[in-house]
Amino acid sequence: MQDYDVVIVGGGPGGLSCARHLSNSGLKILVLEKNNTLGKKICSGEVSSKTFPGVKFKNEQKWETVVVGTHKGTVPVSYNRPFLWTVGRFELETFLKNNSDAVIHFSEPVVEITPDYVVTSKAKYKYKFLVGADGSFSRVRDYLKLPMKHIVGWAFHFIIDKPADRFAVYWLPNTFPKGYGYVMSKSLGKTMIGGAMVERSDNSKESVHQVLAPKVKEWVAKEFGLDVNKLKSEGMKGNADYRGWKFNNVFLVGDAAGLLNPLTTEGIFYAVKSGEGVAKFIRRDPEGQKIMNSMQNAHRWQVLIFDIATAWPFCWLVHWILSNPKGWLRSKIFNYVFWKFMDG
């Protein structure tokens, strides 16, 4: 059995951010990643300005126009500064990895967790602190016996092998109840076209395969004229059921903690920031507790807005705003909420 001060389960943005902020601490850090390389998660490779302030990525694509769609059509809304950058998951995670002194083991899924050590497919590792950064299907969250029923979301999309020509969000209550359609970058060379829906209960994979996927297939074929039978598709789960981040010497970050914006399904920022918060808490830096308090408060606000925006008839108020986001009153509401989400 090998001894480590901190074992981090999951080598995505949350786990690698935690490892990054534990660097030069004198602690012995291990990151366990089940995949064989970085950037394997099924989601967008776009980041907002609040995620890495002041950091520039090579070949990043800036987005200054958001296309807003409803059943009445689409409206482009342009700004004089970027709100998102397409970076790509592999590039983003490589940046975090290269700024960490942690030991990282790939192709090593965790199969058992005890109060003192974790067991993988290859070895046992003793820990003083355990960090669960292993996403919506978190084994560490399962070990803590935390339910995941409050707000659970699914996304399903098709992949086009060419760069995205737009960043678009479609508010279509009749098509995607408590959700939206989207066109965005998966990476610098690929586009995702699909939909996301959030629910108050977890119907497991039935939600994505039996409910969401058929809606997305019909909408994509009709709206974009694509033969979906010839396209690769992906489905993923998002967890916004937040029930805490600190459980004695075990911590949760990102999706594993439920720190996901239920309205926008943005997860990368919350994974990166909560990873930083947990790392600083382990280092006994008071800033860590402040960061996690901020994460909790932001999540409560997001859940409240989600409840209001998706409740009948408020979803049609949102539809009224988005059908003409350039209107005098509607633009003020849209711009305030939009930049609140982008800038934090």
UniProtKB/TrEMBL annotation:
Keywords: Oxidoreductase. It is an enzyme of class 1 (oxidoreductase). Its EC number is 1.3.7.11. SUPFAM superfamilies: FAD/NAD(P)-binding domain (SSF51905). It holds the Pfam family FAD_binding_3. It comes from the Archaea. The keyword Transferase does not apply. Residues 128-272 form the FAD-binding domain. This is Digeranylgeranylglycerophospholipid reductase.
